[in-house]
């Protein structure tokens, strides 16, 4: 379920990028930036329709509001009794665990979980995805044809070949490294460090996104071939990292995953 969610998220991101390219051919960049406010306003208005988090309500001891919020999220005809008990048990267990500081994430007993969570985010971003997404137009132009045609239309064979290669890269990323690190991150940390561990991994992810986008032009100025060879080498190292360090999580409980990590 988590995997489907993150794959859908990446699909929607790619759809949004494609839509921006299409709209950008008829609008100035200022008008295009302003159109980005439309989904933000819709999202802001939608926040008033979203109920409070059931887990947060349990943590605050607001039982009646917790059940009402959970029922609203799941649907009025859905039996929520079993899920409600599981959420209450989870929060009760979490409250009994010691509260860790951010620096305590780096204790030896948590080091492997942190290495896996952070390492996957490093592999995801430094493989070049944000540089390629942000500079798709320039990449097409450097290949010798119009960026607007290259990013939207396919009508002659030389473009067809290269266009299907960007599509292949983005599609492979969305189904693989685009989604998997987020799924694994949600499973890899013990529950007492899940919040702080997830925050650390997310910070590394977005720092990597910024750094990849910022350095892309410098790398391309240095060598276009070298840039993609570098990204390819990082992706090859990512495969080695996943094979040798990341444990299998499919069909395993959190306790089984932690046992596999600690045994390694």
UniProtKB/TrEMBL annotation:
Q: Which Gene3D superfamilies match?
A: MFS general substrate transporter like domains
Superkingdom of this entry's organism?
Eukaryota
Q: Where are the transmembrane segments?
A: 7-26, 32-50, 166-184, 228-246
Q: Which UniProt keywords apply?
A: Membrane, Sugar transport, Transmembrane, Transmembrane helix, Transport
Every copy of the Major facilitator superfamily (MFS) profile domain together lies at 1-250
One GO CC annotation: membrane
Record-linked Pfam families:
Sugar_tr
Where is the protein localized?
Answer: Membrane
Query: Which topology term describes how it sits in the membrane?
Result: Multi-pass membrane protein
* Single Gene Ontology MF annotation: transmembrane transporter activity
Task: Report the leader peptide range.
Answer: none
Query: What name goes with this protein?
Result: Sugar transporter ERD6-like 7
The organism is Juglans regia (English walnut)
The lineage, from the top, is: Eukaryota, Viridiplantae, Streptophyta, Embryophyta, Tracheophyta
- Corresponding gene? LOC109018086
